[in-house]
Design brief:
By secondary structure, the protein is α/β, with parallel strands linked by helices. It folds into 2 domains: 134 residues, Conserved hypothetical protein from pyrococcus furiosus pfu- 392566-001, ParB domain (Alpha-Beta Complex); 53 residues, no CATH class. It is 49% helix and 13% strand. It is built from 9 helices and 7 strands; from the N terminus they run E-E-E-H-E-E-H-E-H-E-H-H-H-H-H-H. Helix 1 packs across helix 2 and helix 3 packs across helix 4. The chain is extended.
Length: 221
């Protein structure tokens, strides 16, 4: 990063512009906690911004989107910011790392960031910069999002998909596939990926129910 300005400056909230590809999302509960914490202490981590090329005198938020919203909700007119003079590629890397430390990622925008970075940085080098491993980046960038029905699309508008990426050996995969096949498929018309997700959730719920039942038997005995 070149020409980095580390001094904290006070910038008017109406001069701060959210990055359109920020993949980070925060639950209502966590956002409420953030608002209460700032209200109680009057303290918050300075936002990280860069000069906005599209609007003179404005700054694009790189890290601190939720803090900016919290400050606006509390009636603040300015925010403490650190200004970094960085290019688009460096900004994408920061969006994929700094913002991952809080909240959760919106899958579509996260994939967009990863694919854009992967055009200029090879997967192996990208894995050295991002939280994901090279294999995880390869799987995510090759991931095809299932098409949604009208009802699913309406539901998705109010919630975010949470990707679960993990790796298993051949024996574990065989056991998991057998377990998924034993679960009764939902009656509603769903994609294969959605059915597998529902089946996995069903298996998890069955496990929790059995644990509760076993606790009840042991206590009564």
């Amino acid at each position: 990063m070149t020409n980095m300005t580390n001094s904290i400056q006070s910038i008017a909230l109406d001069k701060l512009v959210a990055h359109p590809d920020n993949p980070n999302r925060q639950s209502r509960a966590n956002f409420a906690k953030l608002v209460r914490n700032i209200e109680r202490t009057g303290r918050y981590e300075p936002l990280v911004v860069r000069p906005c090329s599209e609007k003179a005198g404005h700054f694009q938020i790189i890290n601190g989107h939720h803090r900016c919203h919290a400050l606006a909700k509390l009636g603040y007119e300015t925010a403490d910011c650190i200004i970094w003079d960085i290019n688009d590629e460096q900004t994408d890397i920061l969006l994929a790392t700094l913002n991952r430390l809080g909240g959760s990622d919106e899958l579509g925008k996260k994939l967009k960031l990863l694919k854009r970075l992967n055009k200029t940085i090879v997967t192996g080098e990208l894995a050295k910069l991002l939280p994901q491993t090279a294999k995880q980046i390869e799987r995510l960038t090759n991931l095809k999002r299932p098409s949604l029905s009208a009802m699913q699309a309406k539901t998705a508008a109010n919630c975010f998909a949470n990707p679960l990426v993990f790796f298993v050996n051949d024996s574990q995969q065989e056991q998991i596939e057998k377990a998924l096949l034993l679960v009764e498929e939902p009656k509603a018309k769903m994609t294969k990926a959605a059915k597998r997700a529902a089946a996995l959730a069903h298996i998890a719920q069955y496990f929790f129910n059995m644990k509760k039942l076993n606790r009840g038997v042991s206590h009564s005995g």
